[in-house]
Amino acid sequence: MPNPGRGNSKSPEPKQAESTPGMDHPQPASPPLEWRISAGLVDYPAALAEMETRVAAIHAGALPEQIWLLEHPPLYTAGTSARPEDLLSPDTLPVYRTGRGGQLTYHGPGQRIGYVMLDLRARGGDLRRYVHDLEDWIIRTLARFAVKGERREGRIGIWVASENREDKIAALGVRVRHGVTFHGIAINRDPDLRHFQGIVPCGIKESVEQPFGVTSLERLGRRVSQADLDAALQSTFADVFLA
């Protein structure tokens, strides 16, 4: 995945969240929700530790909910349903076991991740509805760039249909602790799609009978900057979660 462009976010001046020095600058939004945007690549274990700390603070009422947009160096993550045989190239990239739902997926430059830390208790507590809203958020974001993303029964993620095949353009992985969500979504803006060949993405193997692969905005002919994708994510999030 080529190096992504650098995103920008300008907001009013309310209180900013604490961040790891040198990693990024938090971008606050209207309370009680805060946006944090990382321009560079964020180490996965550090991101996971920060998410867990934030989730505890949200649960305790010490900090507001947060959406964190970022990218990781090239790596694989294995969810709670991951099968060892789906890791086809175990020595290629680091593999991190994670408590999110789902199976194996790839993260790396050019793939925009949205870690979503929301107090589900204050939003009705409906986990199924929350996952549906995450999917809707992705679909609305893709539509801003004239891409039709769709759900598929039995196949998690968001898919793009073309001729005789369907390709996954975005993934979801969710975990809830003490009523607060974390992990979230990943949209393929312009990643190196060859890295997906090292795994069976989300347990779905491509075959003649199942012509399912992976795609990106770039492969679909949409040259989208990181800043433009971030702006679309912020706008459509409000349409889905704050309407």
What does this 3D model show about the protein?
With 243 residues, the chain is of the alpha+beta class. Helices cover 21% and strands 30% of the residues. The chain has helices spanning 44-60, 127-143, 226-241; strands at residues 25-28, 33-41, 65-71, 75-78, 95-97, 104-107, 111-117, 150-152, 155-162, 165-177, 180-188, 212-214. The strands form two sheets. Strands 1, 2, 3, 7, 8, 9, 10, 11 and 12 form a nine-stranded mixed beta sheet that branches. The protein has a three-stranded mixed beta sheet with strand order 5-4-6, with no helix packed on it. Helix 1 links the parallel strand 2 (33-41) and strand 3 (65-71). 38% of the residues are buried. Residues 1-22 have low confidence and may be disordered.
The chain-level mean pLDDT equals 85
Query: How many helical stretches?
Result: 3
Shape label? globular
Instruction: Give the SSE order as H and E letters.
Output: EEHEEEEEHEEEEEH
| Major sheet description | 9 strands, mixed
Q: How far apart, in Å, are the first and last alpha carbons?
A: 35 Å
Unreliable stretches covering 5 or more consecutive residues = 1-22
Strand content: 25-35%
Helix content: 10-25%
Strand elements, count:
12
Radius of gyration: 17 Å
Structural class, judged by helices and strands?
alpha+beta
Compact overview of the structure:
The chain is an alpha+beta fold and 243 residues long. The chain has helices at residues 44-60, 127-143, 226-241, and strands at 25-28, 33-41, 65-71, 75-78, 95-97, 104-107, 111-117, 150-152, 155-162, 165-177, 180-188, 212-214.
